[in-house]
Amino acid sequence: MVKVLSLAIINVTASGQGVSLSSASDLSSFSFYQRGSVGEFMTFMSKTVAERTKPGQRQSVQEGTYVAHAYNRGGTEQLVSVMITDEDYPVRPAFSLLAKILDEFATAVPESQWSNPSSISFPATATYLSKYQDPKQADNIMKVQAELDETKIILHKTIESVLERGEKLDNLVDRSNALSAQSKMFYKTAKKQNSCCVVM
After folding, report:
1. DSSP helix/strand/coil, 166
2. Rounded Cα distance, 67 and 88, in Å
3. pLDDT per residue over 148-177, tens digit each?
4. How many CA atoms lie within 13 A of 179 on its CB side?
5. Are 51 and 13 in contact (CB under 8 A)?
6. In 133-143, which positions are buried (b, 16+ CB within 10 angstroms) versus exposed (e)?
7. Is 50 helix (H, G, I), strand (E, B) or coil?
């Protein structure tokens, strides 16, 4: 099952300490009594991975059945986005989202607000967490690949159904060759017919 559990934007300060600026999580797959401790673990894991992701680096860190994908875009602001997913979540859409959300956050939220994270309003974090639950819908390349796979399955089924009706591929090839010979004969006959009447 493909699932995004947490998405966070973290500022790594000059002292190396990670400060969460915006985050969202979907812990609905856990029982009510587990959600508090799982949420704390997600926050801890996000900050720890963010603090250990070098500027300009993308990395994926696996812990049990969960993977933390992190991207530090570098620069002076030291913003890091971290996405915690299950181990089946594809890497390309994860890093695509991480780059996209950092760009949007840096544009929408001025650096002067980062010192007071509770005053930051950035609803795109929750929106993207929801949208990227299905990576095929969120990532255009995966969407096209899924459509191609579906078309391929339909084509295989179509050929199989033709063969099931008793028509063999060899018979179809023979008919094609016969048709080709008839077409050549028709062309020659038409050419002879048209050659007798020349307009001057």
Report:
1. coil
2. 9
3. 666 666 665 666 665 555 556 566 666 777
4. 6
5. no
6. eebbebbeebe
7. helix
